[in-house]
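Lay summary. Proteins are chains of building blocks that fold into shapes, and those shapes determine what they do. In this project we predict the shape from the chain. Here is one chain we studied, written as its sequence of building blocks.
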Amino acid sequence: MSRGGTVNILLGASLLTIVLQAALPLSTTYAESYVAGQFGVTLPQSLSGGVTTQDGIGGLDISDQPLKSSIDVGVKLGHYFRRAMWIGVETGLSYTTPHIKQGSLTFTGPGGSLTSPTLPGAHQRMIIWDVVTLMLRYPGNRLQPYVGVGPALFFASLEGPTAPPGQSGTAIGLNAEAGVRYFITRHWALFGEGTYNRARIGYISNDSNPNADPFGFRATYSAFTANVGISYHF
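And here is the predicted shape, written in a compact code that computers can read:
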């Protein structure tokens, strides 16, 4: 074979290698970890199924309490496994402030119902720790749809217009999420996701304090959150 033919073959092989490398998907086929930051908006449903726990008025049913939408911020840490690269685990923290809106409440008990005057509302703060979320994804492409579900810890607090002492509560609840991730490089990706959270929270830290604002109660918190973020994979 001539020297020119050998050079042409080498050039062709090099070009083919470059083309194949460019065509390979950016997602990896080995164990993969990632960290991510995100922000978005929380769209909560009303606090529902409320029951008073405050000393002296405990056991009364409360009408639903509408909540305001809120900015949400969060961080995540996750890992996908080598032998089953479509399965992973994730943990994360998020912070949001779905405050209780101003309005009236209806209390219902054995003696009937009573509607309060207009109340000024309360400041609600929520830290949600997604303890361990089981993740399922479609791997092997730049575009990766994913879903996840797992338990979460809710750390919540309420402050009324007179501030201290307020109420706080901790509860175990649900975290469920679905989204799609797009790799802009082999290590960096953009993503958008929707998250659903639900928990039965007891604001009962100051049940025995007659000056507590707001009064103590239990209610169901549920919210949908839409987030966008960026993740680094390694």
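What the prediction tells us: Residues 6-28 have pLDDT under 50 and may be disordered.
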